[in-house]
Amino acid sequence: MRRYSGVNMKSFYGYPCISIAIVVLIAALVLFAGCTSQPASHLTSASLPYGVNITYPDNWTRQDVMTSGVRDYGTTTLSIANFYSQTAIPGDQASYTSLSVDLDQNPGADVESYFNNATLAITKSYGDPTRISAHSYTVTIGGYKSYELDFQSDEVKGSYFFTSTENGLYIFAFKAPNKPATVEAFQAQITDIYKSIRINPPTVDVTQHR
What we know:
The chain is an alpha+beta fold. It is built from 3 helices and 10 strands, in the order H-E-E-E-E-E-H-E-E-E-E-H-E. Strands 3-4-5-9-8-7-6 form a 7-stranded antiparallel sheet, sandwiched between helices. It has a 3-stranded antiparallel sheet with strand order 1-2-10. The longest helix has 28 residues, at about 10-35. The chain is globular, with a radius of gyration of 25 Å.
């Protein structure tokens, strides 16, 4: 009779079960990743009216606007363009990140006061202000000092950048539904986009749509 010296037969015969379990687990993880990951995208650049140059993923949709209206940050501004990402959650058509590029040509001299008023308006725009978390920072966009407002309500996650130039105040407003998969995509996308922005304000007005 052949003997298996030094081998515990119970643990020996348990190995195939463990191996099968590992294979099944790996297959499940691969399937999950395939269902939730976004297609790889390349970058494309856009030259917008009013001297804005921006780089964004080429699977985003660009919409040129050039109309004025009241924004969620409480002032009437010119909407230059909007950008929309692909959906982050399969089957959820609202699970995308949006970027609006706006311009206030008459913001007044006190940019800090403008920013504080915008912060207050945003907290009122998205429900109960006491349930909204908001933080502000100072950053540089295209060589210009800018104020960043990061906020989060039960429904919305946003990062708005207010950039003061000699020709007006530009607002770059990123926004997405406050859902884990959407917020993860939001945070992965916006940094490279806002860091790519270059502003060369024109010396003459650009025709607006009526």
